[in-house]
Amino acid sequence: MEFPEHPFWNFAIDVYRRPGVSDACLQLQEPYHLDVNLLLFCGWSGAFGLGRLSDAEIARCRSAVAGWHDSVVRGLRGVRRILKTGFDDLPDDLRAISEALRKQIQAREIDAEHLEQLILVGCLNRVRNEDLVPADRFGDAAANMVAYCRALDARFDDSDVTSLTIILNAMFPDQANRAARMALEAAARA
Q1: 2 in a structural domain
Q2: For the stretch 110-127, what's the b/e string if a residue is b when 16 or more beta carbons lie within 10 angstroms of its beta carbon?
Q3: Cα–chain-centroid distance for residue 84?
Q4: How far is CA 152 from CA 1, 29, 109, 130, 158, in A?
Q5: Are 182 and 165 in contact (CB under 8 A)?
């Protein structure tokens, strides 16, 4: 499948592949129904120099992808997970076919997430500020991620803040872990 090039996709793939990020994302995704693509988009917006997102912008982004994410992305994820656990009564000679089908569905799930990311990119009408220093981008990314989490009305505990810290550190590998945690905690209190 051919998708238009966009730096957000490359950023998201790079961040997600870093150590601990996929587990951190899964820890936040399940209990809070957090959309990982939207969380990464909030971080990318700050990291890319688009500044801090308003509550209205986050709401617009959530609304723009809600139907797609809930029906298509989660639907494909659900089917993939069912196939991964397998069926006890499936004959052995069909297990390889079932696994091949699971891999095809996983590929379509990734395509659906890619499309969701392109929808998110279309939600913002901002010009990149090339002059922002890394510390400002870091602070904006942390604030955007916290603002999205607040929009979920979730009550995050220390392990959730640790997961967010892992993700933020992956976005800004040159920043210290302590700085990431402090930025997230400060943004959460603001």
Answers
A1: no
A2: eebbbbbbeebbebeeee
A3: 22
A4: 32, 11, 23, 30, 17
A5: no
Within a domain: 167: yes
DSSP per-residue codes, 77-95: HHHHHHHHH--TTS-HHHH
Average pLDDT of the residues in 84-101: 84
Domain count, the chain: 1
pLDDT in tens, 93-143: 888 888 899 999 999 999 999 999 999 999 998 889 999 888 889 989 999
Cβ proximity of 138 and 49 under 8 Å: no
Per the domain annotation, does 143 fall within a domain?
A: yes
CB contact set of 78 (below 8 Å; sequence gap of 6+): none
For residue 1, tell me if it sits in a domain.
no
What is the pTM for the complete model shown?
A: 0.90
As a whole number of angstroms, the distance between CA 110 and CA 91 comes to: 29
The residue length of the chain stands at 190
Question: What single-letter DSSP state applies at residue 72?
Answer: I
Domain residues for the domain of 81 are 7-189
- Are the CB atoms for 167 and 24 separated by under 8 Å? yes
Alpha-carbon dihedral angle through residues 148, 150, 155, 159, given to the nearest 10 degrees:
40
